[in-house]
Design goal:
Elements lengths: L1 E5 L3 E6 L3 E2 L7 E4 L4 H4 L6 E8 L4 H15 L1 E10 L6 E10 L2 E12 L2 E10 L3 H14 L1 E2 L6
Length: 151
């Protein structure tokens, strides 16, 4: 069963057993239930949403985000960059990088609406991909930028 989560700018749906993790550097973070393997230093699958003002196009946004990924991550490897037909003004980036927990697989949606951008990053260790890919994708694809309020 999925439940709704909202922040100031974003709404998404998460499995009811996934936890919201407060983080100062993110708009919204939801994480998989902790397993024994994760307690012993493994990577905890999660979806992290950040938002920021962006006055450009979605193509420009994807260029800026890719450049940031390539310069800020350890051993990044870009797998694909694709439009997302079922979402308006979006791109999907898929990449790998080294992090705590070994090789990390990320699928990132880029959303853009009225000058507000969001990155919706679904992450798990590469060896967790078959177990978590479907649920991470469902959470990420449920994310929407909320209409700005007028007051």
């Amino acid at each position: 069963m999925f439940v709704a989560e909202c922040s100031a700018n974003v709404a998404l749906e998460r499995p009811s057993d996934w936890e919201v993790i407060p983080r100062l550097d993110a708009e919204l973070v939801v994480a998989a239930p902790v397993t024994k393997w994760m307690e012993e230093g493994g990577f905890r699958p999660n979806v992290t949403v950040t938002t920021f003002a962006f006055p450009g196009t979605v193509t420009q946004l994807s260029t800026v985000v890719m450049a940031s990924l390539l310069t800020s991550l350890t051993d990044p490897y870009l797998l694909s960059v694709d439009p997302v037909p079922e979402l308006e003004a979006a791109r999907r980036l898929e990449y790998l990088h080294r992090g705590s927990g070994g090789l990390i697989h990320c699928s990132q949606l880029l959303l853009l609406r009225n000058g507000l951008a969001a990155t919706v990053t679904a992450s798990c260790s590469a060896n967790q991909l078959t177990a978590y890919d479907e649920v991470l994708g469902a959470i990420a694809l449920s994310a929407i930028l909320k209409e700005p309020s007028n007051g």
